[in-house]
Write a structure and sequence with these properties.
With 250 residues, the protein is mostly helical. It has nine helices and two strands; from the N terminus they run βααααααααβα. The longest helix has 30 residues. It starts with a strand and ends with a helix.
C-alpha cells in the first residue's frame, strides 16, 4: 500500500542560500563518493573538492566550505613538503594519514552539509515520496536524529569538563591523557546507549510506523536547481566512468 505525503503548509524561513531537496543531497553524496575513487591525481581531487566547495557555498554552509578549503590546502602543501622524505617511517605514516584524510574530505563535507541543513521531518517526507519501505524509514530517521543528538551531548560534555577544569585541549591530552579521555568517553558512551532507545521510542510515539497518510510542515519537491545540479554531476560521473573503463588515468 502506498503512503502519500500530504503537506499542511510551508514554513517560510530566512535562508542565505538555496534549499536543496533531501533526495538531491543524498544523490550528490553517493555520486561524489563514487567519483572520489575513480581518480588518483591531485589535480582530479582538487577539481572534485572545488565542486564540493561550490555546492556548500550555494547551500548555506559557507563557513564549513572555507574551513575545509583551508584544511585541504594545508594537506596538499604538507604532502608536497614531506614527499622527498618518505623513506623515514614516521614521515611515511604522516603522508599516509594526510592522503587518506584529504581523499575523504569532499565526502565528509557533503555529509556534514546533508546533516546540518536537513530536518528530520524533511528527510522522512522525502523517503516516503521515494516509496522506501517503512522499516527502513523508521531506522534511518532514528539514525539521522541520533547524529544531531550526539552532537548536542558532545557539547554538553565539553561544557561540563570545562567547569571541572578538564577542558578538551592539547595541553590536557598531553599532561592528563587518561583523566581527559575517561571524562569524555565514558559519559558519551552512556549517552549513546540511552539515546538510541529513547529516539526509537519517540519515533513510535509520533506514529512514524503508522501505515496511513503522513503530514509534513515543509514542502519537499525537486526545484530547477535540484534537477540542474544532479544532471551535471550525473553527466560528469558517466563521462569519467567511460574514461576509466577505456583505461585513461585521471
Amino acid at each position: 500500500m502506498s503512503n502519500p505525503v500530504h503537506f499542511s503548509y510551508q514554513l517560510k524561513t530566512q535562508s542565505r542560500g538555496l534549499t536543496f531537496d533531501p533526495r538531491t543531497k543524498i544523490l550528490l553524496l553517493i555520486e561524489m563518493d563514487i567519483l572520489l575513487f575513480l581518480g588518483r591525481s591531485i589535480r582530479y581531487e582538487s577539481g572534485l573538492f572545488l565542486l564540493c566547495v561550490l555546492i556548500l557555498f550555494i547551500g548555506e554552509q559557507r563557513r564549513t566550505a572555507l574551513k575545509c578549503a583551508g584544511i585541504f590546502f594545508l594537506f596538499v602543501l604538507t604532502q608536497q613538503i614531506i614527499a622527498p622524505y618518505l623513506m623515514n617511517p614516521f614521515v611515511s605514516l604522516v603522508h599516509f594519514i594526510v592522503v587518506i584524510v584529504r581523499k575523504v574530505l569532499p565526502a565528509f563535507m557533503l555529509a556534514k552539509w546533508l546533516i546540518a541543513t536537513t530536518d528530520v521531518s524533511e528527510f522522512v517526507a522525502a523517503m516516503w515520496k521515494c516509496k522506501i519501505p517503512q522499516n527502513i524509514i523508521v531506522t534511518t530517521s532514528v539514525v539521522f536524529r541520533c547524529f544531531l543528538t550526539i552532537r548536542e551531548e558532545w557539547k554538553a560534555i565539553q561544557t561540563a569538563m570545562q567547569m571541572r577544569g578538564i577542558a578538551l585541549n592539547l595541553r590536557n591530552m598531553i599532561t592528563k591523557p587518561s583523566e581527559t579521555i575517561i571524562h569524555l568517553l565514558v559519559p558519551l558512551f552512556i549517552s549513546v546507549l540511552n539515546i538510541s532507545d529513547e529516539l526509537a521510542a519517540a519515533a513510535l510515539c509520533r506514529g512514524l510506523d503508522n501505515p496511513g497518510p503522513h503530514t509534513c510542515m515543509r514542502e519537499v519537491h525537486f526545484r530547477w536547481y535540484d534537477v540542474g545540479i544532479v544532471s551535471v554531476i550525473t553527466a560528469a560521473l558517466a563521462v569519467i566512468s567511460m574514461l576509466v573503463i577505456k583505461g585513461d588515468h585521471l
